[in-house]
């Protein structure tokens, strides 16, 4: 095990020496359950970031129910598996969207990385390092708890947990935070809460304060409130059209909410170690606590 860890460090050091020295903020968006609008938030947040001039890459990390491409209205021809199998380069699989963001279809690629040989791993690391010129990488993780979700969470600079006012969503958001804080106790995970589909600012405040207080009392962990997004018919109408709501109606309440959230994120400095190579090193070195 120690020999594998040493070899991984050597590979990462060799690749990092040649990778662009650029600070890339890496955000994992996750949730305790499905149906809370996590993917919608990820897609539209990426577009909101692009609108303020950031170079954004959106990665579909939901290996079971990948549907970022549905919201973007694109059909990916390739995914990470082609890079892992050395059939394609990262540049060849990245899709340009009409909304100013780039998109990578994850498929089951990430789950295969742990089984790569040294040569295959070094090739993949070099290809992944080509993403280092991005300003923001947003990863839409799967919903709920799985080893894959925790791996993304452990490697990201910031983790946004999405919930809604529904009691089951609130309970599952707390459960998600509990798992993160207990399974990844050796890591400082920067968790922030986003309340989606609210009917008023007061409702979001009540829900967020409730979750944050319980997390503080029972888990002794500080979770920040990132913001809220209004419930609005424009969201469902945009989904039916396979268009991001930020594009369909940029002045709608949900769009304005996301613009405010992006502004709030940008007012906080990314962690000093924010980079693609740092993310990949933590991702590959992930060990779930037993």
UniProtKB/TrEMBL annotation:
Nucleotide-binding is among the record's keywords? yes
Q: Please provide an example of a Pfam family that matches this protein in its UniProt record.
A: CbiA
**Keywords of the record:** ATP-binding, Nucleotide-binding
Q: Name one GO cellular component term.
A: cytoplasmic side of plasma membrane
Picking any one GO molecular function of the record gives: ATP binding
Q: Per the UniProt entry, what are the Gene Ontology biological process annotations, in alphabetical order?
A: negative regulation of cell division
- Tell me which PANTHER family the record gives: CELLULOSE BIOSYNTHESIS PROTEIN BCSQ-RELATED, SEPTUM SITE-DETERMINING PROTEIN MIND HOMOLOG, CHLOROPLASTIC-RELATED
Q: What is this protein called?
A: MinD/ParA family protein
Q: What is the lineage of its organism?
A: Bacteria, Pseudomonadati, Spirochaetota, Spirochaetia, Spirochaetales
């Amino acid at each position: 095990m120690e020999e594998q860890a040493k070899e991984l460090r050597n590979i990462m050091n060799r690749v990092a020496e040649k990778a662009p020295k650029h600070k890339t903020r890496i955000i994992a968006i996750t949730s305790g359950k499905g149906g809370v609008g996590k993917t919608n938030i990820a897609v539209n947040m990426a577009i909101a970031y692009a609108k303020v001039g950031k170079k954004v890459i959106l990665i579909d990390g939901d290996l079971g129910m990948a549907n970022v491409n549905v919201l973007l209205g694109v059909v990916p021809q390739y995914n990470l598996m082609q890079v892992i199998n050395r059939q394609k380069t990262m540049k060849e699989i990245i899709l340009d969207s009409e909304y100013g963001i780039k998109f990578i279809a994850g498929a089951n690629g990430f789950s295969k990385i742990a089984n790569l040989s040294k040569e295959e791993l070094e090739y993949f690391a070099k290809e992944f390092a080509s993403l280092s010129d991005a300003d923001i990488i947003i990863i839409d993780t799967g919903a709920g708890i799985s080893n894959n979700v925790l791996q993304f969470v452990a490697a990201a600079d910031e983790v946004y947990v999405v919930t809604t006012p529904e009691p089951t969503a609130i309970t599952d958001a707390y459960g998600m935070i509990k798992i993160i804080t207990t399974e990844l106790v050796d890591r400082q995970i920067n968790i922030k809460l986003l309340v989606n589909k609210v009917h008023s600012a007061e409702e979001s405040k009540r829900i967020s304060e409730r979750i944050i207080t319980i997390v503080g009392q029972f888990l002794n962990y500080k979770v920040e409130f990132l913001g809220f997004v209004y419930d609005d018919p424009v969201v469902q109408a945009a989904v039916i059209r396979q268009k991001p709501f930020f594009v369909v109606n940029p002045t709608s309440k949900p769009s304005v909410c996301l613009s405010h959230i992006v502004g709030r994120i940008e007012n906080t400095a990314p962690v000093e170690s924010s980079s693609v190579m740092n993310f990949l090193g933590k991702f590959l070195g992930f060990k779930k606590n037993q």
